[in-house]
From TrEMBL:
Residues 140-167 form a coiled coil. The keyword 4Fe-4S does not apply. Keywords: Coiled coil, Membrane, Transmembrane, Transmembrane helix. It comes from Corynebacterium glyciniphilum AJ 3170. InterPro entries: DUF1003 (IPR010406). The chain crosses the membrane at residues 45-68, 74-94. It comes from the Bacteria. This is DUF1003 domain-containing protein. It holds the Pfam family DUF1003.
Amino acid sequence: MPDNFSRTDLDTPSTGPRRRLLAYNDDAVGVGAEKVARFLGTGRYLMWQTIIVIVWICLNVGGFWWNWDVYPFILLNLAFSTQAAYAAPLILLAQNRQDDRDRVSLNEDRRRAEETKADTEFLARELAGLRIAVGENVTRDYLRRELDDLGDMLRRIEDKLEDQRNDGRTDDGPSDTAR
């Protein structure tokens, strides 16, 4: 081993840009994979596949002069195998992209939930502060009730004074107001 390399240099993979033989856009491939996966999961695909298989079998069994795939239908099996070999990775790629979208959505939902919780806690603190402040101040209803009670008390006092004046007139003669 040359002296200019250390053990950690050999263990660490290089992070430089790699050159690709074929240049392709990962997102475009992913979008295409999602379209294919969506199509493979539809009744339309199953209908067309069934029609193609029935036509294939009819043309090869029907005794036509160009029956290219005789009874064990090896070519048809090869076509199905090839289709399955491409469909499975495309479906997995579409699922991975959906998982990525779900993860981003979940993180966004968590962020919103944290903001909502913080806002709710702030409002609860503010409301508690207002309740404490209002509890120390007089409310409109409390003031009305106290004024009504005070008015009732004043009426009773006036009634007692009036009763005392009326009692004093009948016993002593003229009241103090006449003097």
